[in-house]
Design goal:
This protein has 21 helices and 22 strands. The chain has about 575 residues and is of the alpha+beta class.
């Protein structure tokens, strides 16, 4: 497929405001492109050149992309940036300049050649690499028409936002192959275990769905983490799960560690390679893990070595940095509480029962100062669970996680194999909710200078892959936090409502789902003006008196936000249930 043809599909995806239309357009696209271009097209749809866990970046900001555009058109950088400042989009600036050129000779490059060219740009390094990147991007740009130039130049600066989520791409695959979404569950299982949409698409097109069914956990490919559901109390948990393993719930960085001989990779909850940021965990894996190859999970927490106290997430998050890592590691060392194992020396142990995996984990991790085993208590009676819960809360932790003793590890699944119990008071919500910013309202008075006066936020509906609104946040932020919100949202500002957003309210500025925030509210109410949980004429749900606690997009993707199902459960955990006005 010609890249210019792909760019027209990008345009259609960008213009639609319907999630169903996204699936239809993707199915049409995937049915048209040849099998060897399925993977690169999929990565480009994600604004990537590889799966999320591969740390490959093009390494060009707006100024360097402007240099490439200027090189093609024989103007200086300032002339390009003038258009960029006027249009607010480096891609539109490139497209506008391309309008004045003669059409490129020939049909132009295909998707594979543009993808390979961008990969070469990303891989340029060392002395003179910036000049090489500029020249290589310009070479691709010369052969493109205006629409192709527009979308090409958005890729290096992270502005190729199609508003397409992973489940939507999987539905697109299924519709392209069989005309409905009946393959979704099988494709999703493979994706959860490999974290590589391009691999799923390439395998489906070249070898069929049976080959996709054979894809499984591999050391070096992060596995999408298993997730926990919620229940209101200890009695409900043990009624649902039976006797359970109870672990304290830490508020740190969830990590998945892959050991391949003397090579170690540490991945975050959102599949980012954090190995360089967490060197003590990688080093401890080499000395404490008794296996040649292994995949195990744990929670990384910052601690004070003088008092041996664990620090809150805001302190732990300071370790997520690319510079001065050694100094920060000495100042804020980490410990990892290992709580599960998925793979040991060639054997995928994720299908085994929790109790068997726990035995494998005990055998896997040798005693040491950095990697510790999370403590567990087997609860047969509610009082057993309550005792661990109260100990956790008194220690400043979030609560506990109960794990069904005979349950397998189900990658990417949120189900009742694991259930979390967090701080909830009768009649009030004393628990945080992870929300996604979907828009903001311009400020008035003092806030007019900040540009933001209130946030419109949503939760996640995983079945439909959409983000329905749940509340507005207009109080409780300092001026510095309002500015930070604006800065974090700026790369994701959208001209129209994103296709995966559901909201009756219309903000001053729409924001594509990307920025995750932790929110505390007094309670959950029924609401006629918010879409979360609204169905069959019933009111949706809303957060009452919400306030921002922290930013969580450092360790959570928007799809990791609190789900509509969790909101319904939390609502049922309260006492009174007034209807919001």
């Amino acid at each position: 497929m010609l890249f210019s043809r792909l760019a027209t599909y990008f345009g259609r995806l960008e213009e639609t405001s319907s999630r169903n239309s996204l699936v239809e357009i993707l199915a049409e696209l995937f049915a048209e492109i040849p099998p060897d271009e399925i993977a690169p097209t999929t990565y480009l749809l994600q604004g990537r050149l590889a799966p999320f866990y591969v740390p490959i970046e093009i390494g060009m900001g707006v100024n360097y992309v402007a240099d490439a555009i200027a090189l093609v058109h024989g103007v200086d950088r300032a002339a390009v940036l003038e258009r960029f400042n006027r249009l607010g989009d480096i891609g539109l600036a490139a497209g506008e300049l391309a309008q004045g050129l003669e059409a490129p000779t020939g049909d132009g490059p295909d998707v594979r050649s543009v993808f390979d060219g961008l990969t070469a740009v990303a891989e340029a390094s060392g002395a003179g690499s910036i000049e090489q990147k500029v020249a290589a991007l310009a070479a691709i740009l010369r052969s493109l028409d205006p629409i192709g130039a527009t979308y090409l130049c958005r890729i290096p600066v992270g502005k190729l936002r199609m508003g397409v989520g992973d489940p939507t791409i999987l539905d697109g695959y299924s519709f392209a192959k069989v005309g409905d979404k009946s393959l979704r569950k099988r494709l999703e299982r493979a994706y959860n275990e490999t974290s590589d949409l391009g691999l799923i698409g390439r395998t489906l097109w070249s070898e069929g769905i049976e080959a996709v069914d054979e894809l499984t956990i591999t050391v070096g490919n992060p596995v999408r983490p298993a997730l926990a559901e919620r229940l209101p109390n200890a009695e409900a948990i043990l009624t649902k799960l039976g006797p359970s393993a109870i672990e304290k719930k830490f508020d740190g960085f969830r990590c998945q560690i892959h050991k391949m001989g003397q090579e170690v990779r540490v991945y975050s909850r959102n599949l980012e390679d954090m190995t360089g940021m967490f060197p003590e965990i990688a080093e401890a894996t080499l000395t404490q893990v008794r296996a040649e190859t292994a995949i195990f999970e744990g929670e990384a927490l910052a601690y004070n070595p003088l008092s041996d106290e664990y620090l809150p997430f805001q302190q732990t998050s300071r370790r997520r940095r690319k510079h001065n890592i050694g100094e920060t590691a000495l100042e804020i060392p980490l410990r990892l509480f290992a709580f599960d194992v998925l793979y040991v020396d060639g054997v995928n142990v994720s299908p085994l029962a929790y109790t068997e995996r726990r035995e494998r984990l005990r055998a896997l991790v040798a005693p040491g100062d950095t990697i510790l085993l999370s403590e567990e208590v087997i609860a047969h009676e509610p009082a057993d669970l309550v005792a661990v819960f109260e100990s956790a809360v008194q220690g400043g932790l979030e609560g506990v996680v109960a794990k069904k003793l005979d349950s397998p590890y189900q990658a990417g699944a949120r189900n009742f194999n694991w259930v979390k119990l967090k701080r909830v008071q009768a009649g009030n919500l004393d628990d945080t909710v992870d929300c996604v910013v979907i828009g903001y309202i311009h400020g008035r008075g003092k806030r007019s200078a900040l540009g933001v006066g209130a946030l419109l936020v949503a939760v996640y509906d995983p079945e439909r892959d959409v983000f329905p609104s749940i509340t507005k946040i207009g109080t409780g932020l300092t001026d510095a936090e309002w500015r930070e919100v604006r800065e974090r949202c700026e790369p994701f500002v959208a001209a129209e409502k994103p296709a995966r957003v559901e909201s009756v309210l219309k903000p001053s500025v729409w924001v594509a789902p990307a920025v995750v925030i932790e929110v505390l509210a007094d309670e959950i109410t029924r609401s006629p003006i918010h879409c979360a949980g609204a169905a069959d004429g019933e009111h949706g749900y809303a957060l009452r008196f919400p306030r921002l606690v922290s930013f969580r997009d450092d360790d959570k993707r928007p799809e990791d936000a609190t789900t509509v199902g969790e909101i319904v459960t939390l609502y049922g955990m309260q006492g009174a249930k007034p209807v919001a006005s």
